[in-house]
Amino acid sequence: MKDVLTGILPVAPTPFFDDGRVDEEGMRRVLDCMIDQGVDAICILANYSEQFLLSDEERATLTRVSLEHVNGRVPVIVTISHFATEIVVKRAKEAQALGASMVMMMPPYHGVGLVPAEAGIYEHFAAVSDAISIPIMVQDAPLSGCTLTVPLLVRMAKELENVSYFKMETPFAADKLAALIEQGGEHIVGPFDGEEAVTLLADLDAGCTGTMTSALQPEKIRPIVVDYRAGNIDAALDQWRLCLPLINHENRQCGLRAAKTVMQAGGVIRSDYVRHPLKPMSQRTKDRLLQLSKELDVIALKWGK
């Protein structure tokens, strides 16, 4: 990947049929919709893609289908997280061979009682960095239960050639981003936030250069980043105020189900099914989601109609 990625790099949801099977054609339609949303890149197989509910065979199929279908129209980031270093390395090599522009990975974790020591975490990322030649985005999220200290992240950025992007989703993300940027300097190529951009304004104040949201409203959130980085702070703030009710509803009430529900209503996909043990959202929550999405006139709500 020649250019530095900035802007909005949303996560693609994984569409299923009502019986739970992966909908490959639906996946293609999701990707086309996201490109029409004007995204700067697309991330697949992330937590908001229900990656923890996919078989290895399904992952491999979705990686191939997605990269073949996007076909270079935008960069594609493939999430490769796994506890086993050997599996992460294998996934990274396969993603690069199929044309991924970047991989994203969390530290190795498997519950609170199975968190490696800092040396193990470093070696986990080092093994992937040694195996590929495309950038690695470190996903620092509470879900892992791993504490990634700023000194550790800076060390990885300075010593591991391909570790250069960081997605910060921890509490007080802005302070951690600011410290990371200050201590890591030029080695912090892409400081990003996540969590549906619920802390985006503070994170932009701290120096982040982009955000990884869901696919719900990227065309509405992207101008916040673009205007802020261009020095148009008032315009960014106005757009932030406009988007915040839907951002908050998604983040606090809907989770990964939001984008799928809106895309189903908009004719992008046939079903908003989520795999068990996840459950559909309540009708009350869905009604408010669709109302807020309609008020913002999001692309996903009309793309397939």
Task: Give a quick summary of the entry.
With 305 residues, this protein is α/β, with parallel strands linked by helices. It has helices at 24-36, 56-70, 85-98, 118-131, 150-159, 173-184, 200-206, 218-229, 233-254, 257-265, 283-296, and strands spanning 7-8, 42-44, 76-79, 102-105, 136-140, 163-168, 190-193, 210-211. The longest helix is centred in the last third of the chain and has 22 residues, at 233-254.
| Mean model confidence by pLDDT | 96
Q: Helical percent range?
A: 40-55%
Task: List unreliable stretches of 5+ residues.
Answer: none
Number of DSSP E strands = 8
Strand residues, percent: 5-15%
Protein name: Dihydrodipicolinate synthase family protein
Family: Belongs to the DapA family.
InterPro entries: Aldolase_TIM (IPR013785), DapA-like (IPR002220)
Keywords: Lyase
Provide structural commentary:
The structure is a single chain. The protein is α/β, with parallel strands linked by helices and 305 residues long. The longest helix has 22 residues, at 233-254. It contains eleven helices and eight strands. The two termini are 35 Å apart. Helix 6 (173-184) links the parallel strand 6 and strand 7. The relative contact order is 0.14. The chain has an eight-stranded parallel β-sheet. The chain has a single domain (7-231), classed as Aldolase class I (TIM Barrel).
What's the structural blueprint in terms of helices and strands?
Elements: E1 7-8, H1 24-36, E2 42-44, H2 56-70, E3 76-79, H3 85-98, E4 102-105, H4 118-131, E5 136-140, H5 150-159, E6 163-168, H6 173-184, E7 190-193, H7 200-206, E8 210-211, H8 218-229, H9 233-254, H10 257-265, H11 283-296
Parallel strand pairs: 1-8, 2-3, 3-4, 4-5, 5-6, 6-7, 7-8
